[in-house]
């Protein structure tokens, strides 16, 4: 019998949202996973992590049944219970908290373990229907969003498929070889078909930098300085498109005057790059009309991240490369979609008077920091879906301290026994994307993709939407979405959005939502009343935190190296993991090896650190032990620790985010994961 391949979509927190075809071997078993060859963005190519998804969905370590803690918190002592008892206990904990301290003492916490709009958004519907504390989701993209919005006014950009028609692709702050493989598909087409060049700008020699024609290895947190110096050269040497600037930007003369002192010599002292490196790149960029700027999240994961994103995003404005096919650029395409999420997330019940907690400050929230609690009660009951805050959130020692509070009830709905699940009072098993219906939209591409259930749930796993609806019934929450199936919500969402219906999308598999060329390239103007790009943004309108530069500039990072903390730590993504997803699969663990510190050979020699030697990294928040790897592909004074490994993978059981800061990135918050000053010593 020939293999049966069923269409679906990858749910993981990656800009690609690949269209997939999954081999179904039995009603409850899959085989191979491949990319959809006829999807113009996925183009049949997917990452190795997802191609071996059978290892994950059929892992013997999947959670199988609801588990109730029957020992001290974090002890790993559990007993099996039934689903009704588990749901009753969650509901009773929520009702008890509400009766005692008010609804705001309940904090449902979620994030991007699935990007499916129905399964991910269901917990929001419960939150809004009951008036539980709200969530400000800042861990990933808030600083980048603010930096792009500051100038453009909307989050969209050139069709990423246009990279195949570019003569120069600038990969700034991303590592698509590891984190978004489809970018490399379109880069490869440009290189083969047009002889295009690939430039990577990144603080260390990533896999993408290895295959690039040019790598600018700048110091962490200095991207804004480099961008300003490049634009200085563009103006100085006649590469600026003054007619374009006059037509579509606000105050270009003021901006040019500001850049007069932002010379390559000035930027060289800040970035560590040579003056000639900066000038040569500027001339290459300025002399290539079809230059495509692909900006990654790495630009924004420092205290100055939003300022850096804004500065970098100005480059195609100065040259006017937006006017050319294969020119312009892209950070994210989230603004192109017209999907009404009112029903799926209960947006018709939002009360903005209810307090909202910053996800990046989970540790502070759970330990009662008055800056976060404001005048409200402590959090005493939680349900956590689609996120692993004990590993991914900054200041993770404080996060753990909060979860270990005896007066806090925590239920975790998960696929595996994560670091967060280990600290819970109750753990319930969740479905993977192959075991439920959902709908997805890309961040780095342009398709709305439906993902219908491929196989039956493993063991006793239940989908997010069902769990939320059952809890809602028990706590007296009312909303039409609680009485509908996931597919019915998808159908209603599509109809309300003017995008057809679920049956049609199931047949067609995806919708190409990319706007026309003029809209994608902002040729009809930018999303401000006067239609002009902003070199001098209204930062105050974007968020409450000040200190932003008035014009693009080098804004100092939050934690600069000093005599006591002479190294800058960057916690970059690992190729075999996706945040903490896939950290539980044997193949990913084997290929990554163990948590490792990449250190320049001269720095390693100065610390007497040989290959594989244990090294302790520390600052005022704590310390972590990993193994050293001398690596010439990092600047002096910089240390790279790739991946968000489980805390248990570290020598002392303390993960890397114990060192990262929870202080908000201006103007609207966010976590500065790549902006940490540390000391190093042999362990």
Key phrases:
683 residues; alpha/beta; 6-stranded mixed sheet; 6-stranded mixed barrel; 27 helices; 27 strands; globular
Describe the secondary-structure layout.
Elements: E1 4-9, E2 19-26, E3 29-35, H1 48-51, H2 53-57, E4 67-69, E5 78-80, H3 83-101, E6 109-110, H4 117-130, E7 134-136, H5 142-152, E8 168-172, H6 176-179, H7 181-194, E9 197-201, H8 207-210, E10 214-216, H9 223-236, H10 242-248, E11 249-250, H11 252-259, H12 264-271, H13 275-286, E12 291-295, H14 305-313, H15 315-319, E13 328-330, H16 342-345, E14 356-358, H17 362-366, H18 370-373, E15 381-385, H19 389-392, H20 396-403, E16 409-414, H21 419-422, E17 426-429, E18 438-441, E19 447-451, H22 464-475, H23 486-496, H24 502-508, E20 510-512, H25 517-520, E21 533-534, E22 567-570, H26 586-592, E23 596-599, H27 601-606, E24 614-619, E25 622-630, E26 638-641, E27 676-682
Parallel strand pairs: 6-15, 7-14, 8-9, 8-12, 9-10, 11-21, 12-13, 15-16, 16-17, 22-26, 23-25
Antiparallel strand pairs: 1-2, 2-3, 4-5, 4-17, 18-19, 19-20, 22-27, 23-26, 24-25, 24-27
């Amino acid at each position: 019998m020939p293999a049966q391949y069923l269409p679906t979509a990858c749910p993981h927190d990656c800009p690609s949202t690949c269209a997939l075809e999954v081999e179904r071997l039995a009603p409850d078993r899959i085989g191979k996973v491949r990319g959809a060859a006829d999807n113009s963005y996925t183009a049949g190519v997917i990452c190795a992590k997802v191609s071996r998804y059978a290892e994950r969905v059929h892992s013997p370590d999947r959670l199988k049944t609801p588990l109730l803690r029957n020992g001290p918190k974090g002890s790993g002592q559990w007993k099996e219970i039934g689903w009704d008892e588990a749901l009753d206990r969650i509901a009773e904990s929520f009702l008890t908290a509400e009766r005692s301290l008010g609804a705001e003492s309940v904090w449902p916490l979620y994030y991007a373990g699935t990007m499916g709009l129905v399964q991910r958004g269901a917990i929001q519907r419960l939150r809004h229907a009951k008036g539980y504390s709200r969530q400000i989701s800042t861990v990933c993209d808030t600083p980048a969003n603010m930096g792009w919005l500051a100038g453009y006014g909307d989050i969209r950009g050139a069709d990423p498929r246009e990279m195949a028609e570019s003569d120069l692709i600038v990969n700034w702050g991303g590592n698509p070889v590891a984190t978004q493989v489809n970018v490399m598909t379109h880069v490869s087409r440009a290189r083969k078909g047009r002889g295009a060049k690939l430039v990577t700008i990144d603080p260390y020699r990533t896999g993408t930098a290895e295959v690039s024609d040019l790598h600018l290895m700048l110091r962490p947190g200095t991207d804004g300085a480099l961008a300003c110096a490049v634009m200085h050269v563009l103006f100085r040497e006649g590469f600026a498109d003054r007619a374009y600037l006059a037509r579509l930007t606000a105050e270009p003369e003021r901006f040019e005057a500001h850049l007069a002192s932002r010379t390559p010599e000035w930027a060289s002292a800040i970035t560590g790059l040579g003056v000639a490196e900066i000038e040569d790149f500027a001339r290459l960029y300025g002399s290539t009309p079809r230059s495509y700027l692909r900006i990654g999240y790495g630009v924004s994961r420092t205290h100055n991240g939003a300022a850096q994103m804004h500065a970098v995003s100005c480059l195609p404005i100065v040259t006017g490369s937006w006017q050319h096919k294969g020119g312009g650029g892209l950070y994210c395409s989230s603004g192109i979609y017209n999907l009404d999420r009112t029903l799926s997330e209960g947006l018709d019940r939002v009360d903005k008077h209810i307090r909202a907690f910053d996800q990046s400050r989970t540790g502070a929230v759970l330990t009662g920091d008055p800056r976060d609690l404001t005048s409200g009660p402590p959090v005493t009951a939680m349900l956590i879906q689609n996120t692993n805050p004990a590993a991914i959130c900054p200041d993770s020692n404080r996060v753990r301290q909060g979860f270990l509070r005896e007066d806090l009830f925590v239920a975790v709905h998960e696929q595996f026994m994560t670091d967060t699940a280990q600290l819970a009072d109750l753990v319930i098993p969740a479905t993977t994307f192959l075991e439920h219906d959902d709908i997805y939209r890309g961040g780095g591409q342009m398709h709305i993709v439906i993902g219908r259930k491929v196989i039956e749930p493993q063991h006793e796993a239940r989908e997010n939407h069902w769990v939320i609806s059952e809890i809602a019934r028990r706590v007296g929450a009312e909303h039409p979405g609680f009485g509908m199936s996931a597919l019915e919500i998808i159908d209603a969402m599509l109809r309300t959005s003017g995008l057809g219906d679920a049956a049609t999308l199931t047949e067609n598999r995806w919708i190409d939502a990319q706007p026309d060329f003029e809209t994608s390239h902002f040729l009809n103007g930018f999303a401000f009343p006067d239609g002009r790009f902003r070199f001098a943004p209204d930062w105050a309108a974007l968020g409450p935190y000040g200190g932003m530069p008035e014009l693009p500039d080098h804004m100092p990072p939050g934690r600069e190296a000093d005599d006591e903390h002479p190294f800058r730590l960057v916690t970059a993504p690992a190729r075999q993991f996706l945040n903490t997803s896939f950290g539980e699969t044997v193949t990913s663990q084997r290929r990554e090896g163990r948590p490792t510190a990449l250190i320049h050979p001269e720095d390693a020699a100065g610390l007497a650190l040989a290959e594989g030697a244990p090294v302790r990294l520390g600052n005022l928040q704590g310390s972590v032990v990993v193994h050293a790897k001398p690596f010439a592909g990092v600047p002096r004074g910089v240390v790279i620790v790739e991946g968000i490994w489980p805390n248990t993978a570290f020598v002392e059981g303390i993960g890397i985010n114990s060192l990262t800061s929870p202080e908000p990135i201006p103007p609207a918050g966010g976590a500065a994961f790549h902006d940490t000053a540390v000391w190093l010593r042999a362990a």
